[in-house]
Specification:
- By secondary structure, the chain is of the alpha/beta class.
- The protein has 2 domains: about 25-50 and about 290-410, Hypothetical Protein Yjia, Chain: A,domain 2 (2-Layer Sandwich); about 55-280, P-loop containing nucleotide triphosphate hydrolases (Rossmann fold, 3-Layer(aba) Sandwich), CATH 3.40.50.
- Helix content is about 20%, strand content about 20%.
- The strands form 2 sheets. Strands 4-5-3-6-2-7-8-9 form an 8-stranded mixed beta sheet, sandwiched between helices. The chain has a 6-stranded antiparallel beta sheet with strand order 1-13-12-11-14-10, sandwiched between helices.
- The radius of gyration is 21 Å and the shape is globular.
- Bound molecules: guanosine-5'-triphosphate.
- Guanosine-5'-triphosphate binds near residues 68, 70, 72, 236 and 238.
């Protein structure tokens, strides 16, 4: 059965209610976040509705291929009227002399060791910048807290934005002062399809055998930047035809149906607030976004695609089983139950799961980190309605994932 559409029949699963176990965790030591073994007691990290990170500074990560228009976007944002005092972090690897940025704010020579210059801009915004990312640079910047209320991080040369998101998820790390608001990816409308099709080439020199094996086409940097994005700007629209723009948009949606897509020229986004800045992509899971993602977009890309698992509202006891499913899938790269599956990897995950006692749980995941919080039911959501988990990844066979999840929920 094809579960692509949100109109699919939903299996009925009603079980007795019990306590909810919620986790934020990773098993990848490289991510330097708390790691839990199955035997460990799982901390209850349920956040209440009022526990929003209001005192934390939002950070938006701007990724994109060389020349896609990242600096043009930063310049554009810095000159708009948004009332924000923005600090810019430029992540420049290698020989920075060759790639010196020409931001609107010209004094860009600070390093993490020196005091950070703050430059007032005409629109009331104050800009400062640090070069090089890394925890130390951000911590250093945070010592100047109060002078800015928003951070933009341009990730020049950073191949994989999935590695950076976990830095902001735990309260004892950077997450106590900053929260990740969203990842914005710029793609060059003229070249992005070529970049995605380089899957059989050797575009990413840093990939190991893992990335070239039975998964099929190679995971390119363009795939990684698109699959992790919350907002995608298809930039340089002036250089291609309308037909080509449609082709690019369809290909991008087939990879990441959760992201909002905007076609731009010179990175000029019509609306910044709520579309590109202050989007809370890691603490909100909007019903409408999941509905859009589950619409059944064509699977035009053979490397990464978006899939939706739809199922019935869960009892509290079944919520614990869902937690087991997520842990097994994200930490062990396996599916619970005796179910045949091919090797897979999950880049991004979002879900809304209503419970039979009238709550709604919001699930967020990046790679093997995930987080479940209690949210507010939306006006259109009926109590005990349909649960949806949207997965963006490679090697995901939707029917196998759903079968595994339903097996676990039925055996609860
Ligand atoms: N024709 C056209 N040129 C653009 C557009 N957006 C940016 N550019 C130009 O493209 C070039 C690269 O833009 P940048 O903003 O520097 O791109 P970037 O992503 O920061 O580049 P790197 O830092 O090298 O990765 C510049 O010459 C821009 O003026 C656009 O929409 N159309």
């Amino acid at each position: 059965m094809d579960h692509e559409s949100s109109d699919d029949e939903i299996p009925v699963l009603v079980k007795p209610e019990e306590k909810v176990n919620l986790t934020v965790a990773s098993q990848d030591p490289a991510l330097e976040v708390a790691s839990l073994n199955e035997d460990d007691e799982i901390p209850n990290l349920v956040k209440g509705l009022d526990d929003t990170p209001t005192s934390k500074v939002p950070i938006t990560i701007v990724t994109g291929y060389l020349g896609a228009g990242k600096t043009t976007l930063l310049n554009y944002i810095l000159t708009q009227q948004h009332g924000k005092k923005i600090a810019v972090i430029l992540n420049e690897f290698g020989d920075t002399i060759d790639i010196e940025k020409q931001l609107t704010v010209s004094d860009m020579n600070s390093t993490e060791a020196k005091p950070i210059p703050f430059v007032p801009l005409a629109n009331g915004c104050i800009c400062c910048s640090v070069k090089d990312v890394g925890v130390a640079a951000i911590e250093n910047l945070m010592e100047q807290r109060g002078k800015f209320d928003y951070i933009l991080l341009e990730t020049t040369g950073l191949a994989d934005p999935g590695n950076i998101a976990p830095m902001f998820w735990l309260d004892d790390g950077l997450g106590s002062t900053i929260f990740l608001d969203g990842i914005v990816t710029l793609v060059d409308a003229k070249n992005v399809i070529k970049s995605l099709d380089e899957g059989f080439g050797d575009e990413r020199k840093d990939v190991g055998d893992h990335d070239r094996d039975e998964h099929g086409p190679l995971l390119t940097t363009a795939h990684l930047q698109i699959s992790h994005a919350d907002v995608i700007l298809v930039n340089k629209a002036d250089l291609v035809s309308k037909k080509e723009l449609d082709r690019v948009s369809a290909r991008i949606k087939s990879i990441n149906a959760l992201a909002k897509i905007e076609i731009t020229t010179r990175s000029q986004v019509p609306k910044l607030d709520g579309f590109l800045l202050d989007i809370h992509a890691y603490d909100e899971v909007k019903d409408a976004d999941l509905k859009f993602a589950s619409k059944g977009h064509s699977h035009l890309d053979r490397t990464i695609s978006t899939h939706t698992l739809s199922f019935q509202a869960l009892s509290q006891e079944q919520v614990s089983s869902l937690d087991v499913f997520l842990r097994t899938m994200l930490w062990e790269d396996e599916l619970p139950g005796n179910i045949a599956f091919q090797r897979f990897e999950i880049h991004r995950l979002k879900g809304r799961v209503p419970t039979t006692d009238g709550k709604v749980l919001l699930i967020q995941g990046v790679r093997n980190i995930y987080d479940i919080n209690e949210g507010k039911p939306s006006q259109s959501e009926k109590p005990g309605g349909v649960s949806k988990i949207v997965l963006i990844g490679r090697g995901v066979v939707q029917s196998a994932f759903l079968e595994s999840l339903l097996w676990l929920l039925h055996s609860t």
